[in-house]
Amino acid sequence: MTDILHIVGGGMAGSEAAWQAAQAGIRVVIHEMRPKVETFAHRTGDFAEMVCSNSFRSDDDEQNAVGLLHWEMRAAGGLLMEMADRHKLPAGGALAVDRDGFSAGVTERLLAHPLIETSAEEIAELPGEGQWIIATGPLTSGALAEAIRAETGEEALAFFDAIAPIVYADTIDMSVAWEQSRYDKGDTLEEQRAYINCPMTRDQYEAFIDALLAAPKTEFREGEMAGYFDGCLPIEVMAERGRETLRHGPMKPRGLTNAHDPDVKPHAVVQLRRDNALGTLYNIVGFQTKMKYGGQTEVFRMIPGLSEASFARLGGIHRNTFLNSPTLLDGEMRLRSRPNIRFAGQITGVEGYVESGAMGLLAGRLAAAEMQGRRLAPVPPTTAVGALVTHITGGAEAKTFQPMNVNFGLFPPVGGFKGGRKGRVERYRAYTDRAKADWRDWLGQSRQSAA
């Protein structure tokens, strides 16, 4: 047991943790309950399966915090970024992937590694010995969640995470819709036309909002509280906050010109993003929902261009459990009451594929170093990885702790730059320049400690 690192969960965090530890020379066993024990959201038993969006969001490593996180993971030899780049799809300035090719690629590389084994079983208790990383993500099994709650003595926080629907491309009416990335962003024509846009007039938008608010929704069980992460709100919850909310959110018309009627500015626009390499599937951007299935098809077919749409997957909703990490985890992501157990990924209170993978990357490296009798220096909080781990292990306010995407608000300020929108280009570049230098130094120190 002592010379093997056990990882529970083969999602983004578990897959990256296994790769990093194995690359450092540590024997790894990945315990993944799928497909033996299924979840409603997963379709396969592959590792790193993408169950929500197929996007890793912005790939801009100079002006965007998530793009910087991509850069740091690539610099650290991250498996997820390698596979994302290999299975990349046109998506303007974003990094979107063929979800099936991506997860199949991750699975193939992990299964081929001589130091990695897999075990198709459900872990229902917290282990008392050995080195473990728990990276079970938002769909932690009920038994393991109960074991965690019993150990920590605290109620796990929970919110509901909603899934956006996917449309078959050949059922989109392109005599109404058109291809264009917002502000024509992208270096190639393919990138500049990475999205399909469906325009709405004011009357169409108002009718859509009425139908959205009236549609039957998933009911919550008695005693359950529906708390949502603001970065993944169901569209009907956004609409309940005000009739104009969607038009200033996922349905904003800015930066888009209707190719069929360029002189008329749409009142609102629904965007669809390519979901696979073949271009046969498109997901409706930002349209995660808790509407019941019958209501979804009726409401979504009100969107111009989607009146005859067929859906490869309708939206859904699931419970997402996460720890109050600032009180439960130490600076090396270990459970304070059981330091042989680390946590990684969404269960720690980070949100998003990339953030989950980054916490897996760090947990895998930290566990490997500890098992080899080494200790890594703390990751500088000036880096994207460091800003995230600092936030979840003490930087956040425990009483109000909620899942968080990486953003420059988590970084120590850079002095000498103007605040507000006008100075952000230079300010963000200063953040990313500093982060890259500090991340390179940390990686260099880590390699020296392993020598």
From TrEMBL:
Principal subcellular localization: cytoplasm
Catalytic activity: uridine(54) in tRNA + (6R)-5,10-methylene-5,6,7,8-tetrahydrofolate + NADPH + H(+) = 5-methyluridine(54) in tRNA + (6S)-5,6,7,8-tetrahydrofolate + NADP(+); uridine(54) in tRNA + (6R)-5,10-methylene-5,6,7,8-tetrahydrofolate + NADH + H(+) = 5-methyluridine(54) in tRNA + (6S)-5,6,7,8-tetrahydrofolate + NAD(+)
Gene Ontology CC: one annotated term: cytosol
Alphabetic keyword roster: Cytoplasm, FAD, Flavoprotein, Methyltransferase, NAD, NADP, Transferase, tRNA processing
Family annotation (Pfam families): GIDA (PF01134)
Localization of this protein: Cytoplasm
Regions annotated as coiled coil: none
Residue numbers binding FAD: G9, G10, G11, M12, A13, G14
InterPro entries: FAD/NAD-bd_sf, MnmG-rel, MnmG_N, TrmFO
Domain MnmG N-terminal: 6-374
GO biological process, one term: tRNA methylation
Cofactors (names): FAD
GO terms, molecular function: flavin adenine dinucleotide binding; tRNA (uracil(54)-C5)-methyltransferase activity, 5,10-methylenetetrahydrofolate-dependent
Listed HAMAP family: TrmFO
Function field: Catalyzes the folate-dependent formation of 5-methyl-uridine at position 54 (M-5-U54) in all tRNAs.
Family: Belongs to the MnmG family. TrmFO subfamily.
Name of the protein: Methylenetetrahydrofolate--tRNA-(uracil-5-)-methyltransferase TrmFO
Source organism: Roseisalinus antarcticus
Gene name tied to this protein: trmFO
